Amino acid sequence: MTSEPIVTAPRHQRDWDQYSRLAAESFGGDHRDLTCHRSRGPAAVAVVDDEVIGGAVALRAHQFFGGSAVPTGCVADVCVRPEWRGRGVARRVIDTLMDRTRADGGVLSTLWTPATGVYRRWGWEVAGLGRRWSVPARGLRSLPAAPGDVVPGFTEPARELQRDLARAWDGPLRRPSWWWDWKYSDSEHRCYTLVVGGEPQGLLGVRVRPVEPWGQDLVVSDFWARDTASGRALLRFLGGFGSMAHTVHFDTGTLANLPALVWELPQHELREQGWYPWMLRLLDIPAALESRGWPRTVTGRLDLAITGPAAQRLVLEVADGRAVTSPGGTGAVALSPGQLAAWYAGTLDPPALTRSLGPLDDGIVELMGMLTRRTEVWLPDVF
């Protein structure tokens, strides 16, 4: 007789090996990455008769919101054996994983998924969409010249530049130190830094993808530029591959929602392809609100009523770029956990707030928009 699943942290290497094989069967490809994640954040597996039948990891990171880095768990490699799907295993794995993420200090959780309905029921909400962009390589070769030299490799100052640039958006990860080796240690990827006056001003992550019957395409996984001139220098560098490369593909999340590339091309041949959304959940609502950055020029108070199984009322007071929460209040603004997450991310502008939350005092709608709509939302990190 088959036992009921037990959900636990991976107990030993055998659990990690079985989980890795299950992920490979579920998603295709070689998921050897999973064992290397054992020190990178919490994990949970479902076990039946000493066999792993489901699992997930939450990579430990920080996510920028309002210029502050908020502790988050990046959920990845959620999988369940086919014969156990639809029986509540994934929900139990995720619940255990989120408990472990909270205990690990995470106050947010983010993930990429096409299964938005499932994760919405579990407390996440869509914060943004992944997009891919493609442009003929020849269109980049004719851009005006820009100063700087593109050299191989990512130096630590270049990585610091990436962190500084990421801080200006709502959503990017403050990448952990292991991120770069995880993404760029294989022979397929090439790393480049743009140097101007001895200082890094941009960086690129690129791999080559063969194209039949001949030639290749370029796939860009990181594209960061200090300013317009730096971006132009990097684009011209990519155009230099045009003797062999037909197309330059900017992979999921690599460019922002409306990339500056549209103002650089001499002819608009930029193609957009949608991908999965990314979703956000607040695991510890007061701590998440107090950890976020807020506009220094905005002062105000919101009386929030969070609905659902973990219903609570709290007062959010913002001043001088910081927030303080306290229990209680009038509950004038009622939000589900998902609506709160979407507002927190900066996804809901004032008209969307009114549509989502129903009639609200105009002053409340204006304040909510001013608090979280000052920065564009973008997650450039795929995990």
From TrEMBL:
One Pfam family linked to the record: SCP2_2
Which segments constitute the N-acetyltransferase domain? 6-147
**Residues spanning the membrane:** none
In Gene Ontology terms, what is one molecular function of this protein? aminoglycoside N-acetyltransferase activity
The record's section on InterPro entries has: Acetyltransf_17 (IPR041380), Acetyltransferase_Eis (IPR051554), Acyl_CoA_acyltransferase (IPR016181), Eis_dom (IPR025559), GNAT_dom (IPR000182), SCP2_sterol-bd_dom_sf (IPR036527)
Q: Name one GO biological process term.
A: aminoglycoside antibiotic catabolic process
User: PROSITE patterns from the xrefs?
Assistant: GNAT
Return the PANTHER family for the record: N-ACETYLTRANSFERASE EIS
Q: What is this protein called?
A: Spore associated protein
Source organism (scientific name): Saccharothrix espanaensis (strain ATCC 51144 / DSM 44229 / JCM 9112 / NBRC 15066 / NRRL 15764)
What phylogenetic lineage does the species belong to?
Answer: Bacteria, Bacillati, Actinomycetota, Actinomycetes, Pseudonocardiales
Instruction: Point out the gene that encodes the protein.
Output: sapD
